[in-house]
Structure formats: C-alpha cells, structure tokens
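On clarity, I found the account of how folds are encoded harder to follow than it need be. What matters is that the chain and its backbone geometry are given together, residue for residue. I therefore recommend that a typical entry be quoted early in the introduction. An entry of this sort, consisting of the sequence and the corresponding backbone structure tokens, reads as follows:
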Amino acid sequence: MLFTRKQLFQLILPLIAEQFLAVSVGLVDVMMVSRAAGEAGIAGVSLVDTLNVLLITLFSSLATGGAVVASQYLGKKEPDNASKAGGQLIITTLFFALIIMAISLIGNENLLRVIYGEPEKDIMRSAATYFFITAFSFPFLAVYNSCAALFRAMGNSKISMYVSIIMNLINIAGIYIMVFLLHMGVEGVAVPTLVARAASAIIIYTLIRQKKNIIHVNNILHAGIDFRMIKRILNIGVPNGLENSIFQIGKILVQGLVTSLGAVAIAANGVAGTIAGFALIPGSAMGLAMITVVGRCVGAEDIAQAKKYTVKIMKLCYLILGVLNIGIFLFREQIIGLFALSGPSEKTTMALIIYHSICCCIIWPLSFALPNALRAANDVKATMTISILSMWIWRIGFSYFLVKGLHMGVMGVWVAMTIDWLFRGICFTLRFVKGKWIRHAYLN
C-alpha cells in the first residue's frame, strides 16, 4: 500500500485545518468590514472577493498541475525531476501573477464597472479600495500556493497548515489594530490581508528551499527555464485553469445578477457565501488530498490503489461534511448573528444557509472532490468540458431564468447553483465508475 491509514490522516487533517484557516481570513475580513463600514463595506468586499478568486484561479490551477506532475514523479521514484518540476512551477505561476497584478492595478475601478455595472457609490468606493490594495498580494499568493502544493505532493501538509496559522495571526492582529484602534474602514482590512499573504509566501518559500525535503527548490533566479517541464505542468494546469476561470467568470456574471437585486441581496449573498465556504472546508481538503494520493498511485502505475483510495477519501468526505453542515444548520442563528446585518438581510441569509447545508451534504462531494481524482490521473479535458457545459447551462442559464423569469430573488441563484452541482456529480460519478479515465492515467 502506498499510503497507510495513519499517513492518510496525517495528510488530510492538516489540510482541513489549513482550509479552515484560509477561509477564516475571508470571514474575519467580512465581519470586521461589517463593523467598520456596514453593509456597503460588506457588499464592496464581496464583489471584489468574487473577482479576486477569478484573478488568482490561474496560478492556483497551475499549482494543481505542478502538484500532479510532482506526485507522479515521486510515484515513479524520480525525486530530482519532482524538484525540477517544483522550481518551474514557481517560476511559471509568479510570471502570470505579476501580469494579473498589473492588469488589476491599472484597471481597478474601470474593471469593476465593466463587470458589475454601476452599483451604489458607497459600494463602489469600498470595492475599488479593497481591490487596489489586495491586488499587490497576487504574486505572494502565487508563490504560497505553489509551495504549499509541493509540500502536499510530498505528503507533508503540516507545513502549509503552520504557515496558515501565522498568516491568520498576522491578519487578525493587523485588522484589530487598524480597524478598532486606528478606526480605519476597508483599508484597515485590506492592508493586513496583504501583509499576511506576503509573510506567508516568504516563510513557505524559505522552507521549500531546504535540501532535506524530497522536493526542494533552488534559487529560482538561477534555475533557468525548462520549457519541456513547463509544458507538462501546463498540460494539466491549463485545462484546469480554463475550467476554473470560466467557472469564476460565470460566478461573476451571476454576481452581477445579484447586484441588480439591491444591497440586501448583495449583503445576504456575501455573508451566506462566506459561511458556506466554511461548510465546504472538509470537501476542499479532501480534493487536495486526492491530488497527492491518486497522483502518487498513477505515477506508480497502480490503478487498483488509485480506485481504492478515491472511494476511501470520498467516504470520509461525506462523513465529515455531514457532521459539519448539521452543526451549521443547528447553530445558524448564532453564526449569522456574528454579522451586523439588517433584518431583511439576516432573514434572507438564514434561508440561503438552510438550503445550502442540506444540499452540501448530499451533492457537493461528487461534483467537486471526485473530479480531482480524475485530474490526478491526467483526465483533465473531460472534467473541463463537463464543468464548463454545466456552468453555462445550469448555473448561469437557470440563474437568470429563476431570478428574472420566476422572480425567486437571490434564492434562485442558489437553486441554480445546486442544479449545476447535481449535473456535475452525475457526470463525474459515471465517468469514474465506467473507468473511462483510466486510459489517460498511462499518459503521464
């Protein structure tokens, strides 16, 4: 067996903790903004966070591609090539992140207006400020995501968890000082977030350079460019990036639809989305673990173990997701009470959270955790095609139908989202069960 039960838990548990800490940064930002700038601040940060996710999706997807390649090399027992892939991954993601940062800084408010139209002045002011400051963090996020992916490929997810703890402590302390002591608004949330991301990138890059790691990266300034290795990373990262980018573009289009419903809908959607992010933490962690585990099995050309570990991780995913979402459902009033929402916004948020908690336990794992097993086996084009079709037909198309046609308000957007989950889940499950992904596993 390539992984014992103990090794799986040593991989997965820190990943859950890391994802919890990563999502908590966004939660703290929203909570603090609600105290400093009210619902206009929440709405502005919510709009930018949706856009930020799109802009950082490229190097997050490339990091996944690099992790798959590195894991497969480790499965082949070729650690030197795994280390080489790691260096090329950091160079590639950093290059694209710098381009994205420049576009974001130059475009800023104009970019926001093109995407979201003309929201209220207070919302636009908050969004533009938050967007400008956080754009400087994109290169740091690229380096952090790449290094964290490499540590996960080694089966060492504790490092990124520890770095996440440091990042969160810096972020929370900075926000407390700037918001509650210096009485700053959105800037008081954005600047500590930037500083925390910069610190985390510097720390984890220093750690990945240590030669005691089976995957270690030399000084990237002297590494040179290996186009063959980059091409292999891009063969996995680009379809994954295209899939995720189109997914985020779709979410932005839907966000624009939500924006047209007014401040109450924007605030409720933003807060509910933040809480829902916590509900998905175990699933996201399982998806990351799937990359490492299945990628290692594929590198060793052991498809039987790849199947076995996929089923085992999916079972664990359902178990933990179920427990967490039941907890959120039971304590929903106390959780939503942490945000400074008006009565109508609070009522709408409550309905969204109840609906999401139910659907998340049943549908989400098959639609987002399972496809990572397919990606780790090089089956990236099929997952990309299924995801893109599902996004445009169900999530976007049905959002406009339910909101504009049936007048369901922001709830219509969330119903369309879960229909998208259902379609993906059915397609990915059938592909895994029928074994159509296996022929791609031998192309590594």
Remarks:
- Residues 5-75 form the longest helix (71 residues).
- The chain has two domains: 1-225, 238-443.
- Residues 238-443 form one domain.
